[in-house]
UniProtKB/TrEMBL annotation:
GO terms for cellular component: ATP-binding cassette (ABC) transporter complex, substrate-binding subunit-containing. InterPro entries: AAA+_ATPase, ABC_transporter-like_ATP-bd, ABC_transpr_FbpC, ABC_transpr_MalK/UgpC-like, Mo/tungstate-bd_C_term_dom, NA-bd_OB-fold, P-loop_NTPase, Transp-assoc_OB_typ2. It comes from Paracoccus seriniphilus. The keyword Nuclease does not apply. This is Carbohydrate ABC transporter ATP-binding protein, CUT1 family. Residues 4-241 form the ABC transporter domain. Gene3D superfamilies: 2.40.50.100, Nucleic acid-binding proteins, P-loop containing nucleotide triphosphate hydrolases. Signal peptide: none annotated. The keyword Membrane applies. One of its GO terms (molecular function) is ATP hydrolysis activity. Belongs to the ABC transporter superfamily. Keywords: ATP-binding, Cell membrane, Membrane, Nucleotide-binding, Transport.
Length: 360
């Protein structure tokens, strides 16, 4: 296990990058704690796999350093980093049995046969392949092969880090849930440093201690699922986390109020306007009302998804979302929205800002 330090790290696939836009991975400085589970979350092309491949040694960065427990491994080959990596598509030895595939990393380290058997049996049970240990990998389905890849990554107990690059893409939905649960248990049992790349927020939020949200080659926030939900540091985080994502309203900010669509919205604290100002409110904290207070809104449609209802609202020609409890009565006369106190985030040029000290 190892802490992982990313020092002044950036990468461009161009031979002579001249501006920030030329970098697939913008400059970043972070230290990831030994033994924690992290998820790299973002849309396709945001730099997740680039960062993972730099950490694993498959890619040497254009600038900066990678350190494992303070040791510079930036140019060290993958084999010298003592890591296990599982890729998006299965990498298995077709001519070997399932048992031989799982045992391969342990045999390479000349481990005792009894210990190899113990670990292989344990991992085979975790991935649900005990009955197939004697089968050749060649005839197995894609999701079965990917389970072997996962198992081979997990069979070692002495690695500095376990790296997963969208490993559940080819796994059926029911098995995805089981394997995520097993990965979480593995982390709890052995305390490996784990980094899990995904574009699926459910995978990220259920797997990780900390989620690293990436956008346009930049890390925009690292936090717990609760922090990402309650205090998105960037409007992209608010949009990407949650279903539906956070609502954004252009606003004129003055002190402890925001003017939205000619309506006054009270804020918790005083703010100074700087650049493009917006407020962000989760659908969970949007309330329907009647009368003259609040922002004018019209119900377009109501979608009943079982656990709750999603209200699609029209606010000044834009769709805004609200959530209502399954049994909640929705009045046809509702014509305004208000927000739960203390649940409004304020943004300047897409970045969350805090109220002036002593005013919150």
């Amino acid at each position: 296990m190892a802490s992982i330090t990313l020092d002044n790290l950036a990468h461009s696939y161009l031979p002579d990058p001249r501006s920030e836009s030329d970098f697939a991975l913008k400059e970043l400085n972070h230290e990831w704690v030994d033994g924690e589970a992290y998820a790299l979350l973002g849309a396709s092309g945001c730099g997740k796999s680039t960062l993972l491949n730099i950490i694993s040694g498959l890619l040497i960065p254009s600038q900066g350093r990678v350190l494992f427990d303070g040791k510079d491994v930036t140019t060290a080959p993958t084999a010298d980093r003592n890591i296990a990596q599982v890729f998006q598509f299965p990498v298995v030895y077709d001519t070997m049995t399932v048992y031989e595939n799982l045992a391969f990393p342990l045999k390479n380290r000349r481990m005792e046969p009894a210990e190899i058997q113990r670990r292989v049996q344990k991992i085979a049970a975790m991935i649900g392949m005990e009955a197939q240990l004697s089968h050749k990998a060649r005839g197995l389905t894609a999701d079965a092969k990917q389970k072997i890849s996962l198992g081979r990554g997990m069979v070692r107990e002495d690695v500095n880090a376990l790296l997963f690059d969208e490993p559940l893409t080819v796994i059926d939905p029911h098995m995805k849930w089981e394997l995520r649960t097993q990965l979480k248990k593995l982390h709890q049992d052995f305390g490996h440093t784990m980094i899990y790349v995904t574009h699926d927020q459910t995978e990220a939020l259920t797997f990780a201690d900390k989620v690293v949200v990436m956008h346009d080659g930049r890390v925009v926030q690292i936090g717990t699922p609760q922090e990402l939900f309650e205090r998105p540091a960037h409007t992209f985080v608010g949009y990407f986390i949650g279903s539906p994502g956070m609502n954004l309203f252009d606003a004129e900010i003055e002190g402890n109020t925001a003017r939205v669509c000619d309506a006054i919205v009270p804020l918790d604290g005083f703010y100074t306007a700087a650049g493009k100002m917006q407020i962000g409110v989760r659908p969970e904290f949007v309330r329907l009302s009647t009368g003259d207070e609040g922002i004018p809104a019209r119900i377009r449609r109501i979608e009943d998804v079982g656990r709750h209802k999603i209200l699609r609202l029209d606010v000044a020609g834009r769709e805004i979302n609200a959530l209502a409890a399954e049994g909640e009565n929705i009045s046809a006369d509702s014509n305004r929205i208000t927000f739960a106190p203390g649940r409004i985030n304020v943004y300047a040029d897409d970045w969350r800002i805090s109220p002036q000290e002593g005013t919150a």
